[in-house]
Amino acid sequence: MAELKTQKTKESVSKFITAIGDEEKRKDCKTLLTLFTETSGEKAAMWGDSIIGFGDYQYQSEKTRRGGDWFFGGFSPRKQALTIYLMAGVKNYPQYLKNLGKHKLSGGSCLYINRLSDIDINVLKLLIKDSFADMKAKHG
Q1: 49 is in which domain, residue-wise?
Q2: For the segment 95-124, what is each residue's pLDDT rounded down to a tens digit?
Q3: Residue 43 to residue 81: CA distance in whole angstroms
Q4: pTM of the prediction?
Q5: Is residue 75 part of a domain?
Q6: Is the pLDDT at 44 greater than 50, yes or no?
Q7: What pLDDT, on the 0 to 100 scale, is given for residue 6?
Q8: Has residue 138 got a pLDDT over 70?
Q9: How far apart are the first and last CA of the chain?
Q10: Which SS3 state, helix, strand or coil, does residue 65 take?
Q11: What pLDDT score does 3 carry?
Q12: Residue 115 lies in a domain
């Protein structure tokens, strides 16, 4: 059985953020780091070479029966947009999405925003808080 490509690493989160070339994206990532840390109560860790994840749990796919370790939530400064990952499923929180501001969704757990100034940070904070609470209730 093939192992997941994206694994938790020992790489430095702060070095990763410092190396982001785009100044606005770097500043947004520093804000997201603080927001996720304070809201989730979890420490940041690098997952693969470009995702900053918080918390972790073991999962097993009902379809494939494959499993592994994954993060409760996190973010990545992708070229096109900031990608926010909330493993409880972003679409499960429509009450926040309608008030969040300019964003796009993909799949069940990915939220794309161009920059933090496009959204209401307080709404994002509530979305993160509830998503992490739901994941912790489900996975301990």
Answers
A1: 13-139
A2: 999 999 999 998 889 999 999 999 999 999
A3: 23
A4: 0.91
A5: yes
A6: yes
A7: 81
A8: yes
A9: 26
A10: coil
A11: 58
A12: yes
Q: How far apart are CA 65 and CA 126, in angstroms?
A: 32
Residue 88 in tokens: 């409880």
Burial of 121 (0-12, 13-18, 19+ CB in 10 A): middle
Residue 127 sits in a domain of what CATH number?
A: 3.90.1150.200
Q: How far is CA 84 from CA 18, 63, 65, 112, in A?
A: 19, 25, 26, 6
Question: Has residue 112 been placed in a domain?
Answer: yes
- Cα→Cα distances 86→1, 19, 20, 91, 110, Å: 26, 24, 22, 10, 7
Reading across the β-sheet that carries 44-47, which strands appear in turn?
44-47, 51-54, 73-77, 82-86, 110-113, 104-106
Nearest partner of 73 among 101, 48, 37, judged by Cα: 37
d(CA 127, CA 21): 28
Residue 8 three-state SS: strand
pLDDT of 1: 45
| pLDDT tens, residue by residue, 46-86 | 999 999 999 998 877 677 777 778 899 999 999 999 999 99
Is 5 inside a domain boundary? Answer: no
Work out how many domains the chain is built from and give that number. 1
